[in-house]
Amino acid sequence: MHRIVADTNVLVSSLIKRGRPHELLLRIGGIDIRLISSNALMAELISVLVEERIAKYVAKSDVERFLRYVGRRTTLVRIRSRFKAVRDDPKDDVVLNTAYSGEAEYIVSGDKHLMPLREFKGIGIVTVSDMLDLLEKI
Questions:
Q1: For residue 8, how many C-alpha atoms fall within 13 Å in the half-sphere facing its CB?
Q2: Are 70 and 12 within 8 A, CB to CB?
Q3: 75 with 99: CB under 8 angstroms?
Q4: Residue 125 belongs to domain with CATH number
Q5: pTM greater than 0.90 (yes/no)
Q6: At what angle do helices 8-16 and 39-49 cross, to 10 degrees?
Q7: Are 93 and 86 in contact (CB under 8 A)?
Q8: CA 89 to CA 108: how far, in whole Å?
Q9: Which residue, of 13, 64, 122, 133, is most buried by count of CB atoms within 10 Å of its CB?
């Protein structure tokens, strides 16, 4: 089973638009992929999804349904590492530490601070399109 961390920006985009991030989330539901997350990342996701700016795009009931969908496909891990690798935005370190602690193979993100790393401790950092291309080969 493949293990990936989907950054908050990817998950939010998958809910509010029907583009590539949405396609990725639907694909994860049907293949041998497990989302990896942590309490910190889930708290961040929830805090973003309850913001007023998100309510313009989706109803509260859709947010609740989305969180149930994601929850069924997610393994929560305890963050055991404390790497500080993202100098320009230390908040992004939680994504790296979640992936490392959860033994993820990939981080899927569009974050301008994570993408230049391309790889962290053997974990690939890829775009949504890159991940969809990789999934085509599974």
A1: 19
A2: no
A3: no
A4: 3.40.50.1010
A5: yes
A6: 40
A7: yes
A8: 17
A9: 13
